[in-house]
Amino acid sequence: MIVIEMPPYIKDADGVIGWPLISSNILQIDAIKDTVELLQNVPVDPSWMKFRVKTNLDVLGFEVSDKKDKEMTVTIDTGKPNGVSVVPQMWREWKAAHTNELITLDAAYMPGAGLVVKEESWAQEISLGPLMLTDVPIMEADRAETTTDIKFKASLGLAALKRLDIVIDGKHGIAYLRPKMTPPSPYWHNRLGAVFVPQDMQSNNLVAHVVDGSAAYEAGIRDDDVLLKIGELDTTKWRTDPNILPLSRFWNSPAGTKLELTLKRGGKIFKTTVILRNIIPPDAPKNSN
């Protein structure tokens, strides 16, 4: 067994166990309870869907087939809080078919991809071959995910896994899945509709990316504004003060939360108050086509 030091970008875990180390076991994943249980037998009945586990990957993945029997790979990522992340073409097609769905933004550092800003929305239904998921967050997959396998189609984060009963029989290479039809769990997401990130890993300025019509936009924040303060917190010290990051804890606060932001646009410094609101979870406004 190989043991390595935890990467510095992982701050909320004591350790990480890779799929190859446990791939010969029978596992039951319960994302709602945040548990992974080792089982002696497969406790499923014929109503569960069966998929072949990919054995040539370093991550947990299974195969699905589309209507043309084209084989696709879906991976499972229990370390990611998001829902379904799909290949760029599928994301573009989904957005084109759901032009009235509200959008927010997500920003994260991804190994192999660097600092990534992505749009995120809410899918009432999304099909991955014969597997149909309902009421899940959806976003475009990043480059690190899409290079996992040449047949990669999507990855399932914790919010998507909460919409499934899952048993992985690693001994026989079978993934048993059963979609849940119960109401979805609350989803903590960016209720600001904007993120502030450096232009590159050497830059110090936290620069705005803003969704049109979002709470941030209506408060007067625009793309390229530089964040200086959240209340009295000096965010310009984000590289040296460990109490500043992650900023997502502010944007993910409950709807109705008021945030006073100090920003700079060109040579002008200004303040604005933003009132956060729900954008994509089940209790957000209904905007589907």
Please tell me about this protein's structure.
This protein has 289 residues and is mainly beta. The protein folds into two domains: 161 residues, Cathepsin D, subunit A, domain 1 (Beta Barrel); 82 residues, Pdz3 Domain (Roll), CATH 2.30.42.10. Helix content is 10%, strand content 37%. A seven-stranded mixed sheet has the order 4-5-10-6-9-8-7. Strands 2-1-11-12-3 form a five-stranded antiparallel sheet, with no helix packed on it. A hairpin with a 4-residue loop joins strand 11 and strand 12. The protein is elongated.
The topology string of helices and strands comes to HEEEEEEHEEEHEHEEEEHEEHEE
CATH class of the largest domain: Mainly Beta
> Which CATH architecture of the largest domain would you pick?
Beta Barrel
Low-pLDDT stretches are none
Overall helicity = 10-25%
Residue-averaged pLDDT? 90
How is this structure best summarized?
Helices cover 10% and strands 37% of the residues. The chain is mostly beta strands. It folds into 2 domains: 19-179, Cathepsin D, subunit A, domain 1; 194-275, Pdz3 Domain (Roll), CATH 2.30.42.10.
Provide keyphrases for this structure.
289 residues, Cathepsin D, subunit A, domain 1, Pdz3 Domain, 2 domains
